[in-house]
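Q: Sequence in, structure out?
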Amino acid sequence: MFPFLSTLFKIAVISLLVGAALSFMNVTAEDILGSVGMSPLQLWIYMLEFRDWAIPNMILGAFIVVPIWLVIYLFRPPRAG
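A: Exactly. Output:
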């Protein structure tokens, strides 16, 4: 768990530094999105559409994955130590 949290912290710090550098150069998120032909509202709509698609599919997949994981976990031999 520690390596995962450490990686998240490193990503957050680097993102903060890059964001501060871009802000210093007067570059905004709207500028970057505009250069690829999007607006913040379009990005927000795409994120909501992705959420609406992903959550039902994750639940559907969990109906298969969780019982299989549980059976494997229950029948796995005990660990030494």
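The helical segments are 2-24, 29-35, 40-75.
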